[in-house]
Amino acid sequence: MPSAHSSPPTRRQLLTRIGTLAGSAALYQAMTSLGHAQGTDFKGPPALGGAKKGTKVLVLGSGLSGMLSAYELRKAGYDVQILEFQSRSGGRNISLRGGDTVTELGGATQKVGFAPGNYINPGPWRIPYHHQGLLHYCREFGIQLEPFIELNHNSWLHSTGAFGGKAVRYREFASDFTGFTAELIAKAIDQHKLDDLVSEDERDHLRTAMKSWGGLGKDYTYKKGNISSLRRGFARPQGGGIDGAPIPSDLFARDDVMKSGLWNWMAFHERLDMQTTMFQPVGGMDQIGKGFTRQVKDLITFNCKVIALHQDQKGVTVTYNDMANGGAVRQAQADYCVCTIPLSVLSQLDVQVSDAMKAAILAVPYASSVKMGMEFKRRFWEEDDQIYGGISFTDQQISQISYPSHGIFSKGPAVLLGGYMFGPAAYDFAGMPPKERLERALAQGTAIHPQYRKEFSNGVSFAWSRVPWTLGCCSMWTEEARKTHYKTLCSVDNRVVLAGEHASYIGCWQEGAILSALDAVTRLHKRALGAA
Amino acid sequence: MRHILLLSALMLSSALMPVVAYADSASSVEGKVQTLPDGAAVYKHVCQGCHMPDGKGAEGAGARFPALAGNPKLQSAEYPAYVVLNGFGGMPWFGVALNDQQVANVVNYVRTHFGNHYTDTLKPEDVAAMRPHLTVEDE
């Protein structure tokens, strides 16, 4: 190596190097062996029981964390009531169908025009297999799940600055990236460039592994031929009969592959969150909200706009406007409160908690996110492109197009996710009128699917920063904010405890809401029994 | 003031770290920031999603996006600049996404539009001075 090794690498530098050199799969393996990257720590439903008779708990919010808190607390023997701002339960667990109306802050109203049976999930839309808390309650509440297709080798990868702006198939790109990388490592071994890093024995293993992993030939090169085409696809596919012989496809140029940046999207699917198998509820994500609602429906009062949460040594008092009755001011009293109101809203309410808790509530910004649900007259992605579920990625603002995992091969109109944005693109799209968002999504999607405009039927956009009841998508913790505020945020503040994805390390996922709620009610129960 | 500066230093340095907990975000790559040549562009592409095109903000569930129109907190240009750099409550920080010129531009834009008529101007150097000093190691 020409550059001197000035000091031994830190753990993070080491991981970064492994990731850069060997790809994210190798990085993930390394992280696992170093004790990072695990699933969630759901250990089964809590066994509470034995609540003092007549003890009242007020739950604020009927999202998943609120409803689960209510469900478990009632089971434990508490007298539970839920106050909900909206006229529906489920919180960010939501699906949109034909006939639904979306009114956002600023006043823009969209009427969803999807055909019967079609839907889009503007909030959560996929469930990792290791989100065992959520999956447990789905089973307990009889919510049917089906596979969600995350990785599709036949989907498109697109970058305006790579391959002349033309989309390439995931399988073509992934084969070539892996093949060329493996070839380089094999070459480096043969040319003794890794001798100072890797023992002789390990070099042999590594060289053999590169051949197998990268699809290299006998000479340890990655080249056009049957081996590479059996990964990336043939120019003329394998056929039957007398003319069935396939013709191998050309490889991309190695420097085009390396400079394209498209390897980001290979790494994306390697994240623990995105690994197969993933799930979705049959019939729309809101089937989970509905399943939870069936358990606690009798406890929910809708249209309650909470304005204050006060507490003293005797109990909690929540003041709210009864929006179903002209905003009449009402109060609800209880011994304890589980508050699941998003911090973006809670931070602006009159909340009587410790100064440290107030600071924690103020310390967490909310991400902005926009999703586009677009209905097309037919499944051209299946019929023309053989794309069945999965995601195509682009460096344009829309970021991705995700094809429905359900209803595959069916005729008639279908809805795809025509954009899913965070960060700058989400800020930009949120600031546009809905019509302009659709026009942008159509224009950008056309770079991947030329059929887009011809087949388009109707669409809806959902800008989370313009949702009146969250003022944002989900919590955005920094490591520093966590160090200072996280434990306080999760602690029982006299008679009040917070729950929701914001009180978890699985922020922005439903599992975070589930695990947070279970932890909150377990500790609140202890507190109520006088043990804490 | 000292502890406020220290706090902002912590927030900014953490914001510079590549990993922000977005979890189910579209990607770890957030897409490109469009060119934002002036204050109007910054406002349009970054701010109006929440503060609305007319700068009047919006009312939600017992909470709101504050109006910039007629907001007395804009009297000193440093305050909006601080909030843009560091965020506030549910509002994310933009100290990483926007450079000094862009922060100055949008602060000046907001203070001279939506019925605001402040005459003093925030300069990029003023914004730079509000940023915490980062050591080479931090960067």
Describe the protein.
- The complex is a heterodimer of chains A (532) and B (139).
- By secondary structure, chain A is an alpha/beta fold.
- Helix content of chain A is 34%, strand content 19%.
- Chain A has helices at residues 11-33, 64-76, 132-140, 170-190, 200-214, 226-232, 254-259, 263-268, 286-296, 343-346, 355-362, 380-383, 423-430, 434-445, 452-455, 479-490, 510-528, and strands spanning 56-60, 79-83, 96-97, 101-103, 109-111, 119-120, 127-128, 145-148, 156-158, 168-169, 278-281, 300-301, 304-311, 316-322, 328-334, 336-339, 350-351, 369-376, 390-394, 400-403, 414-422, 456-463, 496-498.
- Residues 1-15, 17-24 and 27-38 of chain A have low confidence and may be disordered.
- Chain B is mostly helical.
- Chain B contains five helices and two strands; from the N terminus they run ααββααα.
- At the A-B interface, α8, β13, α10, β21 and α13 of A face α1, α2, β1 and β2 of B.
